[in-house]
Specification:
CATH architecture of the largest domain: 3-Layer(aba) Sandwich
Radius of gyration: 21 Å
Helix content: 25-40%
Number of strands: 17
CATH superfamily of the largest domain: Mur-like, catalytic domain
Number of helices: 14
Low-confidence stretches: none
Shape: globular
Number of domains: 2
Mean pLDDT: 93
Structural class: alpha/beta
Distance between the termini: 21 Å
Strand content: 15-25%
Strand order of the largest sheet: 4-3-2-5-1-6-7-8
Largest sheet: 8 strands, mixed
CATH topology of the largest domain: UDP-N-acetylmuramoyl-L-alanine:D-glutamate ligase
Length: 428
């Protein structure tokens, strides 16, 4: 199959088989492929928000330390190939097509598991990493953790960044239920790095980690930022395996200091398992890490901020970051999927906007903004119209904030960066 036919095959799986949690199918598929996930060690990262940034930071540092590092993330902004990388380089369309062709043949075998789109992509990533003899892979959970296809890996360290109400139809209607799913990535006696959690969730995670005899490292207790002044750009880190001072982060936002702290804690745990990661590697890797569409600044007249704050917790985090910005004429371009708590998200973000422009993310699950628009909001026909009107309103000295669904951010980003190669957009 060529690349367009590979996309057609994969998108057909996405449409036909949808999203199904569970490990039995992916385990059978992995066994038929020779268990590629067992060939390389890994770092496994879960969490409602922040897991992509932590993964990108950890992979960047490992690369600077001289390791051949795989990175598997989801979803993608513009291209399916973004999800599978080695040393920052996306898998080629040719290689992804080859792997997709092999997976199509596997699915035609008698007794083959009925793998979903995400399971096929996950196994393709593991095969690619095994073929290229990566020294380690950083693997981001797709959804939840316990029953996510990535949970067949046997990590050297696990990370759970935080818990928020998202995907409640699949993971549970309360924080404790969702925490049980995220905590499913913990493996017996494997160290686990933990972010900030409500009291009842923290109690549960601590008890589960203790039952599994997992060494626990908690943000702001065992490790974290020494400098508490939110105006400080640099990160001075403290942790059980040594401090690292004077870190300049390429990823913007106070919350990225927390994410960077979790990445460093995980990396230092790898250092206790034979990986050679020095302070210089940490400084250089965190100074070069890239994670587009997350507190990303594009343009100057007006200033444009892109952030895929796709749930209530993400919107609250973004609002906190916007608190630190100087007031100016600000347009909020916003759009969400149907399963999101739009009222809570907009409650956080409206206070930072002098005008709100609404557009539906260009996928089937996009929510019609007419169903939640308030008086004075501008409902636009599409993202292109909304971006144009928001920019005109903000003016050269103003600001445009693009937030909500990652599909909305991707559509806006492709308009702002027209040379960025893009796959046909589909709801994955």
């Amino acid at each position: 199959m060529d690349y367009p036919k590979s996309l057609e095959f994969l998108y057909r799986l996405a449409r036909g088989r949808g999203l199904k949690l569970g490990l039995s199918r992916v385990r059978r598929g992995a066994l038929m492929l020779g268990s590629p996930h067992l060939v390389f060690p890994s770092v496994h990262v879960a969490g409602t928000n922040g897991k992509g940034s932590v993964s990108a930071m950890a992979a960047s540092v490992l690369k600077e330390a001289g390791y051949r590092v795989g990175l598997f993330t989801s979803p993608h902004l513009h291209r399916l190939t973004e999800r599978i990388r080695i040393n920052g380089q996306e898998i080629s369309r040719k290689d992804l097509s080859r792997l997709a062709s092999d997976m199509a043949l596997l699915l035609d075998r008698p007794g083959a598991p009925q793998l979903t789109f995400f399971e096929v992509i996950t196994l393709s990533a593991f095969r690619y990493f095994a073929e290229h003899s990566v020294d380690i892979a950083v693997v981001e959970v797709g959804l939840g953790g316990r029953l996510d296809a990535t949970n067949i890996v046997e990590p050297k360290v696990s990370v759970i960044t935080g818990i928020g109400l998202d995907h409640t139809d699949l993971l549970g209607n309360d924080l404790l239920s969702i925490s049980r799913e995220k905590a499913g990535i913990m493996k017996r006696q494997v160290p686990v790095v933990l972010g900030l959690f409500p009291k009842e969730v923290k109690r549960y995670l601590r008890q589960r980690a203790a039952r599994l005899q997992c060494p626990q490292l908690w943000l702001d207790k065992d490790f974290g930022a020494k400098n508490r002044d939110l105006s400080e750009k640099d990160l001075d880190y403290f942790g059980p395996h040594g401090d690292v001072n004077g870190i300049s982060l390429s990823l913007k936002g106070e919350y990225q200091r927390r994410n960077a702290s979790m990445a460093i804690a995980a990396l230092q745990e790898l250092g206790e398992n034979g990986f050679h990661i020095h302070q210089g590697h940490i400084r250089k890797g965190l100074g070069r890490a890239s994670w587009p569409g997350r507190m990303e600044f594009l343009g100057h007249a007006p200033a444009i901020i892109l952030d895929a704050a796709h749930n209530s917790q993400g919107a609250e985090i973004l609002a906190h970051e916007l608190d630190a910005l100087a007031p100016r004429r600000t347009a909020l371009l916003f759009g969400v999927l149907k399963d999101k708590n739009v009222s809570v998200m907009l409650q956080h973000l409206r206070k930072h906007a002098t005008k709100v422009f609404l557009a539906m993310p260009p996928v089937g699950r996009g929510r019609d903004p007419r169903t939640y628009a308030a008086a004075g909001d501008v409902v636009c026909n599409d993202v292109e119209q909304a971006l144009g009107q928001a920019g005109t309103y903000a003016g050269r000295k103003g600001r445009v904030i693009v937030a909500g669904s990652i599909y909305l951010v991707a559509a806006a980003r492709s308009l702002l960066k027209p040379d960025e190669p893009c796959d046909p957009l589909i709801d994955l």
